[in-house]
Amino acid sequence: DAGVIQSPRHEVTEMGQEVTLRCKPISGHDYLFWYRQTMMRGLELLIYFNNNVPIDDSGMPEDRFSAKMPNASFSTLKIQPSEPRDSAVYFCASSSRGNGYTFGSGTRLTVV
Amino acid sequence: KQEVTQIPAALSVPEGENLVLNCSFTDSAIYNLQWFRQDPGKGLTSLLLIQSSQREQTSGRLNASLDKSSGRSTLYIAASQPGDSATYLCAVTANAGGTSYGKLTFGQGTILTVHP
How would DSSP label each residue in A50-81? Predict the structure, then answer.
């Protein structure tokens, strides 16, 4: 298996623009997570899905953030409009119940 | 609310030393605990997974223990090498129970430097 695949690896965008981050989980994993990592706050859980259904989105910072999982092999995290304080590394991870988590390589987002 | 604390925040040791990284969590009702390694600018690599019913797991020079009742885990690294230099993160998964399974709570990490 190729692991959890995230794209793009790096994204630089201007404030106010829409940003879409993508994730392909490991086949057979029924949980998918979006995390954000910053120096100040460490790793924060934004939202997670079980069987494509959002279970907990309490970590989503604002209405500017939205996430979807239209099928078992694809998820997106969208920020609209983006702001400089959204600059961070965004990780996607997947898991199946009782097993550990596998993380993707992350998307480094810079909003200027 | 689950809180995970890692001590020390940073550790610098000479090559060859055996070392222990500590992790504590406030809610003992966990499903499992996982140790990760993160190299600068990279993603997280899973090192060891301990289920709540287990006491320890071993992989090569790494050994992780879990004392769920006291809310503690340790990661033991034997004969450290410069290549072990990285940030080590401890994370716990909330206990199974309907939809509560899944939330992974991370500690702030221990930055390890092993110098030749």
Answer: ETTEEEE-TT--STTEEEEEEETTEEEEEESS
Q: Search chain A and give the residue with CA nearest B50.
A: A100
pLDDT of residue A65: 97
Among B52, B101, B110, the residue to mutate for chain A (most A Cβ within 10 A): B101
- The single residue listed with the structure tokens 């199974």 is B96
Instruction: Tell me: pLDDT of B97 over 70.
Output: no
In degrees rounded to 5, what are phi and psi of residue B114? Answer: -110, 115
Q: Do residues A77 and A65 lie in contact, with contact meaning Cβ atoms separated by under 8 Å? A: yes
Question: What phi and psi, each to the nearest 5 degrees, are found at residue A58?
Answer: -65, -20
**Residues in a beta bridge with A89:** A37, A108
SS3 B58: strand
Q: For residue B96, what pLDDT band results from cuts at 50, 70 and 90?
A: low
Q: A16's torsion region: left (phi>0), alpha (psi -120 to 50) or beta?
A: left
Long-range contacts of B56-65 (CB under 8 A, 24+ apart): B62/B35, B64/B33, B64/B35
Tell me if B104 and A93 make a contact (CB, 8 A cut-off): yes
Tokens of B84: 């072990």
Give how far Cα A111 sits from Cα of B24, B41, B43, Å: 35, 18, 20
